[in-house]
Amino acid sequence: MLRPIPHNERLADVRYDIRGPLHARALELELQGKPIIRLNIGNPGRFGFDAPDHIREAIAHHLRDSEAYCHQQGLTEAREAIAESMQARGCAGVDISHVFVGNGVSELIDLSLRGLLNPGDEVLVPAPDYPLWTAAVILNDGRPVHYPCPPERQGLPDPIEIERMITPRTRAIVIINPNNPNGAVYPKPLLQQIAALAEKHRLVVFSDEIYEGLLYDGAQFHPMAPLVKDTLCVTMSGLSKVHRACGYRVGWMVTSGRVQAAREYLRSLDLLAALRLCSNVQGQWAIPAALRGPDTHSALCQPGGRLYETRAAMLRSVARSAHLRVVAPMGALYGFVGVDTSAMPEFDDQQFALDLLDQRQILIVPGSSFNVPYRNHFRITLLPEAAVMERVIDSIDAFAGTLAKGAKPRVAQVA
């Protein structure tokens, strides 16, 4: 017999259910000819959203300029546009040396933590979080410490609770604003408190702002970087969501604040960037066009806009539901929906999602996938048409009703 090939045991603690076993089960059902309503991922291009024409044209115009490697931190033209946008926010000291362009924010999350962490170092991560943050901490030998952002507080954290979790091993704090999955948009006074806490304890602030332009009902987004002055802030954003260009795989991170005190860390980032040579050059030509071009996203989030109307349909449907509840998302592309389990003592979000997929062909993401301790939530994307969303919520509510009445759905197994 052949000896089994070993694997990285740290992966046992890593989950990414957005494209995990449930996604694999959905593919199986599709092969059986069953149409699946996919609410598991924020992928605008799969729901009929197009990247803006001026972004496409910028890439096409520079196609012949994209055949060689560029600087490891990114094209000069792209980094100039990013630095310019940060300066407009009040980060006067930012220049292109502070900007790193990557193959999406996903790559930069991993790179930024790899350059920072030593074995056993701790990172404060929101719960719920985008699960790549927790995974990247684990895979880079760190320990994620989750600070709660519960529905009872509209998905917002408590700085006092956060400070109690800080230990001598704490190296950084992650902010996701607007939050994925719960849609919370952080008020400026709260961000100021978190910035002060980070400065007091000399923590690096990682501010994930990929959804910064997707806001509802008058919510205001406040960037973290101008508020962090006496420690290092690393801001992350990109083209995937606001500019509906996920497949271009274009993200960036910008260092600001006490940059001089972080010289060794920045050298580490530069080395890691160089080891992968550079990020996708073609997509980088879209950055100046996106940041200097017209606003093509705000109208989507206003009355009559596609995202606004789908969000409104979700809120209406949940409001009339007997079994569901939700805190209205003020930003991003998701609803983090809770299930009233008072009549369902054995309710489990993973099993619920699997049975819903098998019996109703609706693919959702269990809430526990986002590193929360409770198991009575699920995430759905707001990208479908409003009429589809209304039907889906009604179907999920009816399905939950079968559990509340004691009619246990067939138990399926995920391979």
Helix-strand blueprint:
Layout: H1 21-31, E1 37-38, H2 53-61, H3 76-88, E2 99-102, H4 104-114, E3 122-127, H5 131-139, E4 143-148, H6 159-164, E5 170-176, H7 188-201, E6 204-208, E7 232-238, E8 251-257, H8 263-275, H9 281-284, H10 286-292, H11 306-319, E9 324-326, E10 334-339, H12 349-360, E11 362-363, E12 365-366, E13 377-381, H13 386-404
Parallel strand pairs: 1-11, 3-4, 3-5, 5-6, 6-7
Antiparallel strand pairs: 2-8, 7-8, 9-10, 10-13, 12-13
Helix pairs in contact: 1-12, 2-10, 3-10, 4-5, 11-13
Textual characterization of the structure:
- By secondary structure, this protein is an alpha/beta fold.
- It folds into 2 domains: 9-50 and 299-404, Aspartate Aminotransferase, domain 1; 53-292, Type I PLP-dependent aspartate aminotransferase-like (Major domain) (Aspartate Aminotransferase, domain 2, 3-Layer(aba) Sandwich).
- Helix content is 34%, strand content 15%.
- The strands form 3 sheets. The chain has a 7-stranded mixed beta sheet. A 4-stranded antiparallel beta sheet has the order 9-10-13-12.
- α5 (131-139) links the parallel β3 and β4 (143-148).
- It is globular, with a radius of gyration of 22 Å.
- 46% of the residues are buried.
- The model is unreliable at 409-415 (pLDDT under 50).
| Domain count | 2
CATH architecture of the largest domain: 3-Layer(aba) Sandwich
The total count of helices amounts to: 13
Strand order of the largest sheet: 2-8-7-6-5-3-4
Largest sheet properties: 7 strands, mixed
Question: What is the CA-CA span between the terminal residues?
Answer: 24 Å
Shape descriptor reads globular
Q: What is the name of the CATH topology of the largest domain?
A: Aspartate Aminotransferase, domain 2
**Would you list the SSEs in sequence order as H and E?**
HEHHEHEHEHEHEEEHHHHEEHEEEH
What structural category characterises the helix and strand content?
alpha/beta
β-strand amount: 5-15%
Q: Poorly predicted ranges (pLDDT <50, ≥5 residues)?
A: 409-415
